[in-house]
Amino acid sequence: MTYYASADRYETMTYNRCGNSGLKLPAVSLGLWHNFGGMDAAENGRRILRRAFDLGITHFDLANNYGPPPGSAEEVFGRIWKQDFSCYRDEMIVATKAGYSMWPGPYGERGSRKSMLASLDQSLKRMNMEYVDLFYSHRFDAETPLEETMSALDQAVRQGKALYVGLSNYGPEQTKRAAEILRGLGTPCLIHQSHYSMYERRLEQGLQETLEEEGIGTIAYSPLARGLLTDRYLKEIPADSRAAGLSTFLNRQDITEEKLKKSRELNRIAEERGQSLAQLAVAWVLRKGRIASALIGVSKAEQLDDIVGTLGQSSLSDEELDRIEQILGGGAL
After folding, report:
1. Going from the N-terminus, what domains does the chain have, and what CATH number goes with each?
2. pLDDT of residue 248
3. pTM, rounded to two decimals
4. Where does residue 270 rank: exposed (0-12), middle (13-18), buried (19+ CB within 10 A)?
5. In CA terms, which of 41, 116, 202, 282 is 20 to 30 Å from 303?
6. Contact between 97 and 137 (Cβ < 8 Å)
């Protein structure tokens, strides 16, 4: 059946300016880290992508090695994009990354010019695209001069294979130096993708201040703590959950009694607000307007409606923030 995007898709989504650029990102973006691999049901992925776009989610985040197997998420996305979204290309922000292990041998990972640009060419072929909107260095590579990695990002833009470039999983000093190099090359760093949630707060240890000083936008991945900040694990580990399976990203050992206790207490605050725990978690990440977008992953299209529903009630009072901090025992961003 031919897909026609919802006519009112831009009416309820919030769009935030990304750093000092003119680009706006949806407050909620969709990541294809999970549930889009070759072992997953393609039709379910298609439903998720269609529903996301209908809700005004215009930013879709991938990486060369997403799957499993590596590369299959880009292949699945590419097929769906060709079927349903090619006519909407100018309304979409599509991102991919390179840096982690992708193919055998010394050129299949890290940040050399050879690895970065070969990876981007492969990604474009898998996705049936001439360019991506955003190309990331997925991690800092101590074995490669930072100038070489950043010049590869710059070259991707100059070749017309990417419109913007970004960093992911870089520390504050690495980010500052990378931003300086990119500015000198004439290709400013648009964005930094950081692991950030109520349970992961390293972003607050100097990196967010660096990003603001450099005019770089922030997108937070895993704001739901890989499911720990949803109602999935409030009582037990469901048999069909990621933690119950063979996932390397969340296992039973990650679900400590301490975190479960905190999640239940946070859930009480969410219930008082008439929200789900997932909605509260996203609202918390987006508080104070310092994060351009919360990057979420879902296994069902219906979960998107719940998360996007956050935007109608995203403000948190000082009292609520204080209560959350007491539960978490952390500092405030």
Report:
1. 15-233+276-316 (3.20.20.100)
2. 47
3. 0.93
4. buried
5. 202
6. yes
